[in-house]
Amino acid sequence: MKCYPVPRENLVLSIDNLKDDIPEEYLSHKECYENVIRKGSVLYDIFSELSKDRKHKAHQAPSNAYRISDGIMQNVNPFLLHFALFVPAITNQATPEQQAEFLKHGFGIIGTYAQTELGHGTFLRGLETTATLDLETDEFVLNSPTLTSYKWWPGGLGHTANHCVVMAQLYVKGKCHGPHLFFVQIRDIETHEPLPGLKLGEIGAKMGFNTADNGFLGFHNFRIPRNNMLMKNSQVLKDGTYVESKNEKLTYGSMVFVRVYLLSDMAYMLARAATISVRYSAVRHQSHIKPDEPEVQILDFVIQQHKLFISIATSHAFKICGLWLWQTYSKVMEDIGKGSMDRLPELHALSCCLKTTSTRDAGWLIEQCRLACGGHGYLMSSNLPSLYTTATAAITYEGESTVLLLQTARYLIKSWKRAMEGESLPATVSFLSEYFNKRYNKWENTPKGIVDGLKLVVAGVTKMCAESIQKHVSRGQQYEEAWNSSSVQLIKASEAYSRALLCEVFWFEVDKVSSTLSNNLAVVLKQLAELYITYWALEKRGDLLVYTTISKDDLDKLQERYEELLALIRPNAVGLVDSFDIRDEILCSTLGAYDGRVYERMMEHALKSPLNAETVNQSFHKYMKPVILKHKI
Ligand SMILES: CC(C)(COP(=O)(O)OP(=O)(O)OC[C@H]1O[C@@H](n2cnc3c(N)ncnc32)[C@H](O)[C@@H]1OP(=O)(O)O)[C@@H](O)C(=O)NCCC(=O)NCCSC(=O)CCCC(=O)O
Ligand SMILES: Cc1cc2nc3c(=O)[nH]c(=O)nc-3n(C[C@H](O)[C@H](O)[C@H](O)COP(=O)(O)OP(=O)(O)OC[C@H]3O[C@@H](n4cnc5c(N)ncnc54)[C@H](O)[C@@H]3O)c2cc1C
């Protein structure tokens, strides 16, 4: 691994363990897990060596660690949760003294985040695992009172992690204080055996994510020291006094962190899919555009450009919006550190809808990239199927998409009510006040005009939702029932909001930086931003016709401009995906390598199939031959 300046003699396992003899897709479930542990352990050691470098924070993987993993494992790294949630949960939710204690072994422990249960993932107040304070021994006793209270899903829990952060209902002196987080050792460090009082295992094969080693965990009178409750926000003192958090939702902070991070992750997954499918479309020649000319690169079909360029543009949109959201997150965390919770609801609303839209879009766009590669996209060796199953899991984990959209809708409805009462609103929803006060412009066929129009759609749909809820309440429903009755429209409001945010942030951030870029680069970036916005204006033409003053003539011009943009981007398409700068070792695709040797790589890969190791498979003699011979005349 040339890119990592870690001396080989510092590693306990040989670096040769990173190589595969047989491609992962040909291994059984168990072999696949063992195979990624072999490779993952070397990586874990490398990360630990790198974290000694002061540039990286101790206990955390270097920022490009996940990317290196992507090249070494086509499937998910079972150590992922250690970096993605276990360490962040401790650093966000534990006191400085607890952090020093829990993380003192650095990479000597492997952790995961155990929150979801068999019976509850979404509704956290419904979790059933209990942590009851025993005043006499100064310990918490953890129990799983029912089958549905078993932890179910945490990544790395089945066989990899020896520690976890567990969410459980806190009971002190007979009173329940709701879900809290606890630091729990689950396996012996030396033998790796589950500790007594625990029932631990893996949940079985899944649609993808199969090496993530998702597990189950049950507690039977399992004791941990009182100090193992993460006590940065709320505390339980030795005498059993419960000190409340300034805001009980701070316990959910680790999820907000990951939701924010996921935007950049989806940008990267899409960049990989776009690189594979655009490069392949430049190599692949099929059919004619003009009958008397040679077969064309399939990338020259305008409909192929329509299918693929939106992925390039969307990857940039997520990257830029992800940075913007990250800055918002950092600012809100800084404010919280100083005691102000004012912007927490706004951050929660933004992270919920942007997490959902980015994961959903990444899912269907990666699938579109796969379909755009025709039959060859269906091969595992294209890597597009793995990218799809990995990305699509994110639509559900870290907050189910509908549920998170409803959280954002809740914020929109509250903001609408505040607008009606004349209160001032944060910049991200101030357009609701402008709409309420009828301060909006006529349709303008420019990127800024489209962004304004998309915001009008959000305001119009939000108003419609508020009226719908009111209508149901006036017919006798309770507010919560009326909310449920209006949920189809509420989802629409939230979806429209995230689309408007993505378009606005993408356009204005590109506009802001373009003066600092070379003219050529600024032109291309603006084309991508305009393509993204125009694509969504055309997709949402129905809503624009209902809520803005757009005309059919405006829509015809937008369609024309969209096709112009496809033509403008076409000559740069391969350059644009090359500029994502993803090494072949990370792409892991026979279709998308930089040198364009698609067919040679496909054949080389096919020859690695274990079925090709012998000319006649033994099943022929055992099963097929007797049947064939019976029917032979
Ligand atoms: C759905 C909710 C948000 C509902 O929570 P609730 O307590 O029932 O709240 P409610 O009554 O609906 O609302 C009460 C209020 O709490 C607010 N709130 C809720 N969550 C947050 C937050 N994070 N920050 C700030 N505020 C938050 C809500 O907006 C409500 O505010 P409001 O009353 O309207 O002012 C919550 O339970 C939740 O977040 N569920 C999703 C669970 C989830 O994301 N699990 C992830 C497990 S880990 C994982 O999947 C890792 C995979 C990683 C991998 O493999 O890579
Ligand atoms: C690959 C993968 C990895 C995971 N990793 C982890 C992990 O490391 N740690 C961990 O703790 N968990 C993990 N999870 C669990 C994950 O976070 C939950 O599955 C997720 O939060 C969804 O919860 P659920 O399964 O309870 O879905 P449910 O809430 O049961 O969803 C089922 C349906 O009910 C609907 N629904 C539920 N509530 C409402 C509502 N209020 N209003 C309207 N509709 C509603 C949903 O929209 C959905 O259509 C993982 C899951 C997956 C798939």
Automatic annotation (TrEMBL):
Transmembrane segments: none annotated. Its cofactor is FAD. It comes from the Eukaryota. Residues 252-413 form the Acyl-CoA oxidase C-alpha1 domain. Residues 9-104 form the Acyl-coenzyme A oxidase N-terminal domain. Residues 447-628 form the Acyl-CoA oxidase C-terminal domain. It holds the Pfam family ACOX. GO terms for molecular function: acyl-CoA oxidase activity; FAD binding; fatty acid binding. GO terms for cellular component: peroxisome. One of its GO terms (biological process) is fatty acid beta-oxidation using acyl-CoA oxidase. It is found in: Peroxisome. Keywords: FAD, Fatty acid metabolism, Flavoprotein, Lipid metabolism, Oxidoreductase, Peroxisome. FAD binds at T116, G155. Signal peptide: none annotated. Pathway: Lipid metabolism; peroxisomal fatty acid beta-oxidation. The keyword Oxidoreductase applies. The active site is at E398. Belongs to the acyl-CoA oxidase family. This is Acyl-coenzyme A oxidase. It comes from Danaus plexippus plexippus.
